[in-house]
Amino acid sequence: MFPGKISRKNNDYKIRNNLDKELDLKQLLLRNPYDIYAIVNESLDDTEPMMTTFLVVYSDEFEDNVILYDISRQNYTTFTTDISTCTKGYIEVIDVCRIARYPIKFYVKELYNEIIYKW
């Protein structure tokens, strides 16, 4: 359902699986500020996905929360969720006494081997 790689601003970002521990996700976010994206499938229908891309923003000061900054569908809106839910592979949205769970995947910038030219 999720693409293996996405491109943003002339950079490729590869899907990062196995983020099932809060500490792993926190360390990844702290080491890569503004270089982590998330894609959330906001569709409740499995046949037609509705993917939304977010820039992931995190700081130690946020404690156990992470901010998802929408860059695809509703530009410049934010969504705050807790890290423990993200490590389970979904985010929860509570709306009018209904809890919806949407799948989430994180994408990290691919590192390329840099060629250094000496003059």
Describe this protein's structure.
- The radius of gyration is 15 Å and the shape is globular.
- The chain has 119 residues and is mainly beta.
- It is built from 2 helices and 8 strands.
- The protein starts with a strand and ends in a 10-residue tail after the last strand.
Summed up, what is this model?
The chain has 119 residues and is mainly beta. It has helices at 22-31, 83-86, and strands at residues 5-8, 11-16, 36-41, 51-57, 65-70, 78-82, 90-95, 98-109.
Biggest beta-sheet profile: 8 strands, antiparallel
Note the quaternary state here: single chain
Structural class: mainly beta
Cα separation of the termini: 47 Å
Report the sheet-strand fraction: 35-45%
Q: What's the average pLDDT?
A: 86
| Rg, alpha carbons | 15 Å
Shape: globular
Task: Give start-end ranges of low-pLDDT stretches.
Answer: 112-119
Helix percent band: 10-25%
Total helical segments: 2
Strand tally is 8
Order of helices and strands: EEHEEEEHEE
Strand-helix topology:
Elements: E1 5-8, E2 11-16, H1 22-31, E3 36-41, E4 51-57, E5 65-70, E6 78-82, H2 83-86, E7 90-95, E8 98-109
Antiparallel strand pairs: 1-2, 2-8, 3-4, 3-8, 4-5, 5-6, 7-8
Tags for this model:
119 residues; mainly beta; eight-stranded antiparallel sheet; 8 strands; globular; disordered C terminus
